[in-house]
Amino acid sequence: MKIITIIIAVLVLAIGGFWLYGSLQPVAYSKTASKDLNMTPLETWFKLHDYEAMGSWHPDIDSVVWANDKYGLNAEYIYYFVSGDSLRIRTTDYEPFTYFATTITDTTLPFSGNWTYELEEIPGGTRLTVTENSEIHGAFIRAIYNLVQSDTSTAEKFLTYFSQL
Q1: E strands present in the chain
Q2: pLDDT tens, residue order, the chain (165 aa)
Q3: Three-state SS at 99
Q4: Which residues sit opposite 32 in a β-bridge?
Q5: Which contacts (CB < 8 Å, 24+ apart) does range 45-54 have?
Q6: Phi-psi region of 62 (alpha: psi -120 to 50; beta: other; left: phi over 0)
């Protein structure tokens, strides 16, 4: 009986410590990454908006489908990931050929956020800057995220894959 009590106490302390660690982590975070591309701003813009092709160049994405009949502001689409998960996104800000923002619309997830995409013409191409603004709502999820996240943000990974087009 004493062993069982010790095991339960250790588990309670471990779970409590894990929760405490997560609750001390920031809810919101922002990461920005930029990459100079050897394509014109117009070419970059149209490749960014070719969502159906994303599954062919992004290794985490199986497919992307349009969820409504809009293009530009308020366009909605669903990312289907190789893992089997999906994510519904809406374009929430839109300046043709220079800037747009997308926002996660599913409020049942343990995270939320938006991505902004800025295109700047530079000699010989385009500088694409992606900013990921996210919130992780649960203490346990924040703890896991902070323990397993890599130094490479998802914005940096996106730019690496996109630049290979």
Answers
A1: 28-37, 61-66, 76-81, 86-95, 99-104, 111-122, 125-136
A2: 789 888 888 888 888 888 888 899 899 989 999 999 999 999 999 999 998 899 999 999 999 999 988 888 899 999 999 999 999 999 999 999 999 999 999 988 888 999 999 999 999 999 999 999 999 988 988 888 888 876 667 899 999 999 998
A3: strand
A4: 131
A5: 45/96, 45/97, 45/119, 47/162, 47/165, 48/100, 48/117, 48/128, 48/162, 51/77, 54/79
A6: alpha
